[in-house]
Design a protein that fits this description.
The complex is a heterodimer of chains A (112) and B (113). Chain A is mostly beta strands. Chain A has no helices and 11 strands. Chain B contains no helices and 11 strands. The chains are: A mainly beta (112), B mainly beta (113).
Chain lengths: 112, 113
């Protein structure tokens, strides 16, 4: 049983560019959440997708957007990258009506 | 006030020691609580859920005090492999909030020989 998988694992982008990160949830999970983790901090909730719609959103600007596909996989898009967007981006999946979430290995984004 | 607060440490303990981590949360209506473990440059992994009655998993014991909005994790007989960052995690109230987790900053533990 494959766990949560994310791609790519590492990415270097230039300020102002756009980036797309991808996530496949754990089998049997239909809810995908995205988190940003800066160095030395705990993960911060970006948004959550369920039934192909954004169900909840954290305190992140509109430059951060996402999508969920019919197979429950998801994308995170970030436009107009800033140096401060450099972080580990984590995808987590969860099953219906269960609070615990399981994380992918993350995508380490560096903006130069 | 942060939603979830932890002492960032670091905690440096010898093998075999007992170590305790504490955490407080601000939203009294929070409904689910967890401890996650994160190794350096890896993803967080669920260590254990925390129940009101307290729960134990081998060398690990978690306690929840809803009145004080306080969560704890006790590790007995520490092993070198316990070295990691321990994240206190709270699920806020609301029916659609499942899977939306609020993390503390994390407490760094180093177990030395």
């Amino acid at each position: 049983d494959a766990g949560v998988t994310q791609s790519p694992t590492h990415l270097i982008k230039t300020r102002g560019q756009q980036v797309t990160l991808r996530c496949s949830p754990k089998s049997g999970h239909d809810t995908v959440s995205w988190y940003q983790q800066a160095l030395g901090q705990g993960p911060q909730f970006i948004f959550q997708y369920y039934e192909e719609e954004e169900r909840q959103r954290g305190n992140f600007p509109d430059r951060f957007s996402g999508h969920q596909f019919p197979n429950y996989s998801s994308e995170l898009n970030v436009n107009a990258l800033l140096l401060g967007d450099s972080a580990l981006y984590l995808c987590a999946s969860s099953s219906p009506a269960k609070a615990e979430a399981f994380f992918g290995q993350g995508t380490r984004l560096t903006v130069v | 006030r942060k939603e979830v607060e932890q002492d960032p440490g670091p905690f440096n303990v010898p093998e075999g020691a007992t170590v305790a981590f504490n955490c407080t949360y601000s939203n009294s209506a929070s409904q689910s609580f967890f401890w996650y473990r994160q190794d350096c440059r890896k993803e967080p992994k669920l260590l254990m859920s925390v129940y009101s009655s307290g729960n134990e998993d081998g060398r690990f014991t978690a306690q929840l005090n809803r009145a004080s909005q306080y969560i704890s994790l006790l590790i007995r007989d520490s092993k070198l492999s316990d070295s990691a960052t321990y994240l206190c995690v709270v699920n806020p109230p609301g029916g659609t909030s499942y899977g939306k987790l609020t993390f503390g900053q994390g407490t760094i533990l180093t177990v030395h020989p």
